[in-house]
Amino acid sequence: MADIPGGNTGGLSGALNKGMGVIADKAVSYGNKWLDNKINFGLNYAKNYARQFDFLGLMPEQWTLLDSEGEKAFDFDSFAKLNLKSESKIIQAPVEGGSFVMYNKLNTPLELKCVLIKQGLPEELQTYVDALLDYADSTTLLSIVTPDKEYSNMNLVSVSFDRSAEVGINLIIADCAFTEVRQVTPEYTSARVAKKVNRGRQQGKPRSMLSYIKGGFK
């Protein structure tokens, strides 16, 4: 390399090497950050999604699903959303003024929708999916516990799963729909019904003299 007037070729070469080293370090650092962001994107997405509803600041047991034994029905990480529908129906026929009473109005079972999030290893995610599908196919009743109220006798009637590279392949979001099952306790009486007694041939009612005169003696 020709000498640069007033310069130093050794200094120039060192500067170039240093510059290339800085560029390489930044490229590696950028690549690591990009990879870390990609790996953690799913979890961050779930956390940000859940924060919109201020659920993560609550104790886990305040948002859960319990079986008939009072145990957690299955394992999940976040209870991200809850939607409750309470509906009543009234008769469509006209009613007389002032005669609208409770038997003219029918309260339908509660409908509850929630979003559950689970992150984990493939076998953990499979267990999570299998548990939800089993409950969706069964008549098992669950209790949905929230900080405000516990909704009992709820049956899982629908479930759908969302899993994509955008939210992370190690994370599954489940949209669940529950319907309330209203149960009544049958009441029985101890009263006995008297048995019919066969009293044989019964004597007819006596006829009056007038009936004999009109109809004759038969």
Task: Describe the secondary structure blueprint for this structure.
Layout: H1 9-51, E1 64-66, E2 78-85, E3 88-90, E4 105-107, E5 111-119, H2 122-137, E6 142-145, E7 150-162, E8 171-180, H3 209-215
Antiparallel strand pairs: 1-6, 2-5, 3-4, 5-8, 6-7, 7-8
Structural descriptors:
218 residues; alpha+beta; 6-stranded antiparallel beta sheet; disordered N terminus
Taken in chain order, the helices and strands follow as: HEEEEEHEEEH
Instruction: Give the strand line-up of the largest sheet.
Output: 1-6-7-8-5-2
Fraction of helical residues:
25-40%
Q: Give the mean pLDDT.
A: 75
Q: What would the principal axes of the Cα set say about the shape?
A: rod-shaped
Largest sheet report = 6 strands, antiparallel
Fraction in beta strands: 15-25%
The count of helical stretches stands at: 3
End-to-end span in angstroms?
A: 154 Å
Radius of gyration: 39 Å
Can you offer a commentary on this structure?
By secondary structure, the protein is an alpha+beta fold. It has three helices and eight strands, in the order αβββββαβββα. It has helices at 9-51, 122-137, 209-215; strands at 64-66, 78-85, 88-90, 105-107, 111-119, 142-145, 150-162, 171-180. Strands 1-6-7-8-5-2 form a six-stranded antiparallel sheet. Strand 7 (150-162) and strand 8 form a beta hairpin. The N and C termini lie far apart (154 Å). The model is unreliable at 1-7 and 54-60 (pLDDT under 50).
Short summary:
The protein has helices at 9-51, 122-137, 209-215; strands at 64-66, 78-85, 88-90, 105-107, 111-119, 142-145, 150-162, 171-180.
